[in-house]
Amino acid sequence: MMELLRTDQPTLSLRQAMDRLLEQSFTPLMRDRGDGPQHVPANLWEDAHNYYLYLLVPGVDPESVEITMLGGSLVIAGELTAPAPQDGKAIWYEWGTTKFRRQFQLPTGFDAERCQASYTNGVLSVTIPKPEQAKPKSIKIQAGPTAEGALSSGQN
User: Fold this and answer.
1) pLDDT, tens digit, 9 for 90 and up, residues 45-84
2) How is the beta sheet containing 66-70 ordered, strand by strand?
3) d(CA 152, CA 156)
4) Cβ 67 vs Cβ 76: under 8 Å
5) Separation between Cα atoms, residue 50 and residue 32, nearest integer Å
6) DSSP secondary structure string, 15-80?
7) Fold held by 28-83+94-132
8) HSE-up of 94 (CA within 13 Å, CB side)?
9) Residue in 127, 61, 68, 134 with CA at minimum distance from that of residue 103
């Protein structure tokens, strides 16, 4: 029996098929959101004393990153500049200078002077100490009369 071939779809070479598969399989680190700044992945953790914010920004010069805090808003913005020889001509160009910006809403009362930031192996880490009112507080239970004593005196 003869099989019909569809001719309305182009036949891909193995190389083209593999290229398409790889392009579709990996999400770019900085996803394009139109004309605005690029989106960078972030994780936010907390413990009893601090918030820990981690942004994945490999290749970024820490000097090109600006961290600002106003009220309860933490803004991190920066730029990744693609290296290029001064008199060189691009033959293949998939990325260039890329700007990014992330904004996080946190409870008010933070002291920006106590925040710390570091950059290691492509990860920007920001430690934000919690204000006293945001820290968990332990409430001590006062010992009262024993259950038997309260029942015998008529208290419930």
Assistant:
1) 999 899 999 999 998 999 999 999 887 789 999 998 888 8
2) 66-70, 73-80, 98-105
3) 10
4) yes
5) 31
6) HHHHHHHHHHHS--SSB--TTSPBB--EEEEE-SSEEEEEEE-TT--GGG-EEEEETTEEEEEEEE
7) Immunoglobulin-like (2.60.40)
8) 3
9) 68
pLDDT tens column, 95-154? 788 899 999 988 777 888 889 999 999 999 999 998 877 667 788 888 887 656 555 655
Q: pLDDT at residue 34 above 50?
A: no
Give yes or no for a contact between 37 and 77, defined as CB atoms under 8 angstroms apart.
yes
The residue behind tokens 């500049």 is 81
Structural domain boundaries in the chain: 28-83+94-132
